[in-house]
Amino acid sequence: QADSDQDGLGDYQELFPCPVGTCFVPQTDPNNADTDNDGAKDGADNCPVTSNPDQGNVDGDSKGDVCDSDADGDGLSSAEEAEFGTDPLNPDTDGDSLKDGAEIKDYGTDPINFDTDNDGLSDGQEIVEFKTDPKKTDTDSDGISDGKEVTLKLNPLKKDNPVIPIIVSLLLDEEDVDNDTIEDSIDNCPKLANAN
Question: Against a cut of 0.90, is the pTM above it?
Answer without folding.
Answer: no
